[in-house]
Amino acid sequence: MANKGPAYGMSRDVQSKIEKKYDDELEDRLVEWIVAQCGAAVGRPERGRLGFQVWLKNGIVLSRLVNSLYPDGSKPVKIPDAPPTMVFKQMEQIAQFLKAAEDYGVVKTDMFQTVDLFEAKDMAAVQRTLMALGSLAVTKNDGNYHGDPNWFMK
């Protein structure tokens, strides 16, 4: 990830439009679901886009989330004992989550790109992916979903 200076002109306009799609109320609902689904051990992020991004950035919370949607003994993502500190390992962990979410049934058009989360380029896309995953979990009704079913559309 290269250091980037401030955006100007059209680049700034495009980034501004992307940032306006981020929903703070949706963030609260997603945090509540992730904590209900994974347990209090995942902690809680600081409020706001940056806090949400930092909380999810290393991929561990996302991996725990997708693993919690599967029955014991068939967890799709391996979670390391210590959270990864190297950039490529963190991005690899996010990529494993994305693969597991796709295998779970989230369609490609609802998926974010690793860079969207890792560099906070499009946190609204991250929200869309988590909403799609939650909606699928509620719809499957296989007993692995925890939380209020009204948080997501079937």
TrEMBL record:
Pfam families from the xrefs? CH
Where on the tree of life does the source sit, at the highest rank? Eukaryota
Tell me the ranges covered by the Calponin-homology (CH) domain, including all copies.
Answer: 24-137
Q: Which Gene3D superfamilies match?
A: Calponin-like domain
Q: Which SMART domains match?
A: CH
Identify the InterPro entries for this entry: Calponin-like (IPR050606), CH_dom (IPR001715), CH_dom_sf (IPR036872), SM22_calponin (IPR003096)
Which family would the database say this protein is a member of? Belongs to the calponin family.
Official protein name in the record? TAGL protein
Organism, by scientific name, is Edolisoma coerulescens
